[in-house]
Amino acid sequence: MNQQFKRELVGISFISPWLLGFLTFTLGPIIASLYLSFTNYDMLSSPEWIGTHNYIHMLTQDSRYWNSLKVTFLFVFISVPLKLMFALFVAVLFTRNYRGVSFYRTVYYIPSIIGGSVAVSVMWKRLFGLHGALNSGLSFLGIKGVDWITEPNTAIWSLILLVLWQFGSPMLIFMAGLKQIPKELYEAASVDGASKVSNFFRITLPMLTPVIFFNLVMQMIGGFMTFTQSFLITAGGPLDRTLFYAVYLYQNAFTNFQMGYASAMAWVLLLIIATFTALVFKSSSAWVYYESDGGK
Fold it and tell me: CA 106, CA 168: separation in Å to the nearest integer?
């Protein structure tokens, strides 16, 4: 046994726990779900091979599927840009030398840690309920409130507000990016008489585009997989107005016991996320600036 093989054996032994976990809990279920997507499987009997029937039914006959897709697209395309803009705005404020800024950074980051919890979802449901704190505040101003959670026209917006409240993670990433921008650029711009607004659009935003690109991809992927908020607060209602894709997938898998159909939905969601991610990567050459290579 030569030395090279011994070194490789030692390396494999060190990564073997992770490798075993990956094969057992990640790669194995992925392959199994791909197979199950072509079967009729109710978790109580053996899978029955039906070919592409699940995919055909999904795309041509299931109206609730298309509704869940529409709701998810609406949620992602509204919440992600608003969340990133708000996170960037707060990050710019927190890079200033204000008193107690470190404390406020921590406070504003906490919702990102607990935002997906059951307790926060229950709190949000009560906050926007008919007799919740929001309507109590509105009644104090003489405005009659509604049940924001069960009203079809407002339910989705209550969930979008919950996501916007969880802007701490992209905020910290923006703050890290802001600290990497050379101060010499701002000093040179001030000598030329540039305003703060001009500095923001001509220096800050171009230098932050790699960070914006990263946050956009991560938040977009997370948006497509949003589950907890809709499942606990609205249960997909009212009238399926908040029936997110992941919630409808869960209903098919664990309520209707159509695990084969749910597996097919999962693979279509993977293709949707991969497509939009690829489009963002493709477009990055037109708007993402990399200082190391003079722009890209």
Answer: 9
Q: Which residues of 129-142 are buried (b: 16+ CB within 10 A; e: fewer)?
A: beebebbeeeeeee
265 vs 44: which has the higher pLDDT: 265
228, part of any domain: yes
Q: Which residue has the higher pLDDT, 78 or 114?
A: 78
- According to the model, what pLDDT value does residue 1 have? 58
As a whole number, the mean pLDDT across the chain is: 90
Total structural domains in the chain?
A: 1
Tens-digit pLDDT profile for residues 150-205 = 899 999 999 999 888 888 889 999 999 999 998 899 889 988 888 888 999 999 99
How far is the C-alpha of 30 from the C-alpha of 25, rounded, in Å? 9
Any domain includes 111 = yes
Do 68 and 262 touch, CB atoms closer than 8 A? Answer: no
Instruction: Please give the span between the terminal C-alpha atoms of the chain, in angstroms, as a whole number.
Output: 49
Helix, strand, coil fractions of the chain, as percent rounded to 5 = 75, 0, 25
Separation between Cα atoms, residue 163 and residue 226, nearest integer Å: 10
Task: Please report the pLDDT score of residue 294 as a whole number.
Answer: 54
The CATH number linked to 146 is 1.10.3720.10
Count H helices and E strands in the chain, helices first: 15, 2
Residue ranges with strand state E in the chain:
39-40, 48-49
